[in-house]
From TrEMBL:
<dbReference type="GO" id="GO:0016853">
    <property type="term" value="F:isomerase activity"/>
</dbReference>
<dbReference type="Pfam" id="PF01380">
    <property type="entry name" value="SIS"/>
</dbReference>
<keyword id="KW-0378">Hydrolase</keyword>
<dbReference type="InterPro" id="IPR035488">
    <property type="entry name" value="FrlB_SIS"/>
</dbReference>
<dbReference type="GO" id="GO:0003700">
    <property type="term" value="F:DNA-binding transcription factor activity"/>
</dbReference>
<dbReference type="InterPro" id="IPR001347">
    <property type="entry name" value="SIS_dom"/>
</dbReference>
<dbReference type="GO" id="GO:0016787">
    <property type="term" value="F:hydrolase activity"/>
</dbReference>
<protein>
    <submittedName>
        <fullName>Phosphosugar isomerase</fullName>
        <ecNumber>3.5.-.-</ecNumber>
    </submittedName>
</protein>
<dbReference type="GO" id="GO:0003677">
    <property type="term" value="F:DNA binding"/>
</dbReference>
<dbReference type="GO" id="GO:1901135">
    <property type="term" value="P:carbohydrate derivative metabolic process"/>
</dbReference>
<keyword id="KW-0413">Isomerase</keyword>
<dbReference type="InterPro" id="IPR046348">
    <property type="entry name" value="SIS_dom_sf"/>
</dbReference>
<feature type="domain" description="SIS">
    <location>
        <begin position="10"/>
        <end position="150"/>
    </location>
</feature>
<dbReference type="GO" id="GO:0097367">
    <property type="term" value="F:carbohydrate derivative binding"/>
</dbReference>
<dbReference type="InterPro" id="IPR047640">
    <property type="entry name" value="RpiR-like"/>
</dbReference>
Length: 159
């Protein structure tokens, strides 16, 4: 499944419950850094969709009150076994949120708590569009498209 197919599947699953209302970006360390472009994109372009970016521990111990069935939680952990990230994905599922996890490890614990998992390639020969930063940004662009309509229209209306 590509990012658009994943977002369309999540949106369809909850369309009768009010759709996707918030996106939470959750990770630790370098994986959290990969989320900044997506956070800044949604902060500057979204008018209805709310976005939050948290370290995994913050997400677990200062859980957003809005976390629930209308939430999309994107959790990234390169190795997929970072205890805090695994706990964050588990907590998101306990709150009926939809979780998309990203890791390069097919045996990762993180995958156990994924509504959808994206297994990415890693290494010197990997195409940049397949790295976590680009994938997370694509997920957020596709989510904004799904929730608020045409991205091109949104951007052209700013001029």
């Amino acid at each position: 499944m590509n990012t658009k197919e994943i977002i369309n599947a999540v949106a369809k699953e909850i369309e009768d419950k009010g759709g996707i209302r918030q996106v939470f970006l959750v990770a630790c360390g370098g994986s959290l850094v990969d989320m900044y472009p997506a956070k800044y994109f949604l902060d500057s372009e979204a008018t209805k969709l709310h976005v939050g970016m948290y370290t995994a521990n913050e997400f677990v111990y200062a859980t957003p009150k809005t976390l629930g069935e209308n939430s999309l939680v994107i959790v990234c952990s390169h190795g997929g076994n970072t205890p805090e990230s695994v706990a964050a994905a588990k907590l998101a599922q306990q709150h009926q949120a939809h979780t998309i996890t990203l890791t390069h490890n097919a045996q990762a614990q993180l995958i156990e708590y994924a509504s959808h998992n994206i297994l990415y390639a890693w290494g010197n020969d990997t195409n940049v569009v397949d790295n976590p930063m680009a994938i997370i940004l694509n997920l957020c662009v596709d989510t904004l498209q799904q929730v608020e309509g045409s991205i091109i229209t949104l951007i052209s209306n700013r001029e």
